[in-house]
Amino acid sequence: MAISQRLTKDNNTCPDADLGALCDTDCRGAYIACRQNCNDLTCDNECAIEYVECLSDCPCGVNCPNGCEDCEHPTCQPSPCEIPEENKDFLRCKNSNEKMLNGCLSNCYSYDCSEICTQEFLENTKNCPCNPGCPQGCPFCPDYNCEIDDGFLAMTYFYSFSAPLEGNVERTQINYPIGNPLYITGSGYAYLQDTFYIFGGEYDRYMISKLDGYFYKIFFATEIKNGESHYYSNSVAVLSDDSKVLLCFTSDIDYKSCMYFDGSSVGLESSKTNSDHILGCIGNYREAIMAFGCDSTSRGKYAEIRDPETGDWSYTTNFPIDNIYTEGASCIGVGDAMLTIGGYGDLSQAIYLFKNESWNRLGNLSTYHYFGSVINFNDEIYALGAYAIEKFTVDTTNGTMSSSTIFYDYPPALEYEIYSPLVIRKSDSERQKELLI
Q1: How many whole angstroms separate alpha carbon 210 and alpha carbon 158?
Q2: Is the pTM for the entire model greater than 0.90?
Q3: How far is CA 5 from CA 26, 52, 75, 142, in A?
Q4: Cis? peptide before 421, omega within 30° of 0
Q5: Is the predicted pLDDT of residue 427 greater than 80, yes or no?
Q6: Is residue 65 a contact partner of residue 9, using CB atoms and an 8 Å limit?
Q7: Handedness of CA 8, 13, 15, 17 (dihedral sign)
Q8: N or C: which end of the chain has fewer CB within 10 A?
Q9: Burial, 83: exposed, middle or buried (Cβ in 10 Å; 0-12, 13-18, 19+)?
Q10: Domain 151-436 belongs to what topology?
């Protein structure tokens, strides 16, 4: 405390004492963490020197005696929380808490249980960046982890990698319990109720397994539930309330039916689509699920929407191009719209937006996207295609997109070898690791 008092201006005269106090708290936390890693006096002294330097640069510190006036400390920069909905840390925390809330509520059967879930959600949300527990946002959040290097993990049958949003893509190691890479070939996948599940695939179409590890060491559990047959990753989607995942259009049942998995039980949906969607995709559209695509030119134009209340499917506006194969596309919900990305032949680089019963072609990828995967980070879309990972942003209000840029070029030997990769956000895998500890 004595060091802090000597290196900061009197709180009664410094105009930005509140920001100085936040900075002071951050410096103290770094100092304590530094000391915990020390084993000798020299290390302790180095920690103390860093602490003094940190305090000196704070608003109201000796280098910024007039608070934020002419002070370059990060706490004096324009607040990243002026528009919380545009702050990626706030959105990450908010989305994570909402997933936990939905997972908690899905297991509740009483008012008291729902109240407990809601109270936990409200308490956790208070600590999010830009909320009362962290008004300045990251990195000044005492009860929220700002350090997660978000990005995604992509897993294929013989090549898997870690892709941070900033930095270099690195190859990762996978250990299969059966020693066979076909374990995930053609599998569906979904992140349901804080758990990453893998469904079916070439090795065993009836198997459901889950991710038991994370990052460089990825282990898959043995079978946890014998489900219905499933093959093809793009016909899988989680309902908006996180209560269950749909797995649709597999050859061993029929191309109009969907199965469901709710985390413990498996069954067939009572309603079917009106048209076949062989090798089609499904994705979230607002509160509903939308199905699109077929390997038949006569049926490739049909799109259908599942009513979230009844589960019934009904036709919506046909795809704007008739007599075309629409198989192999990826579907993904973005805001109040759904995107279809890539597909077969003439559609292999096309990006379409569906909104308000209308289709709009937004633009093109630079490379082919056929039986690929896609992931959304706060409306920035990463498309894992045949030759590269591309990224672009979408404005669903105006129906426009940015130019698609190459995020990662696959090594030449892998071109057109990345088939339907399983993709999970690193922050979600970090969350699952915490649940497994």
Answers
A1: 19
A2: no
A3: 15, 11, 19, 21
A4: no
A5: no
A6: yes
A7: positive
A8: C
A9: exposed
A10: Neuraminidase (2.120.10)
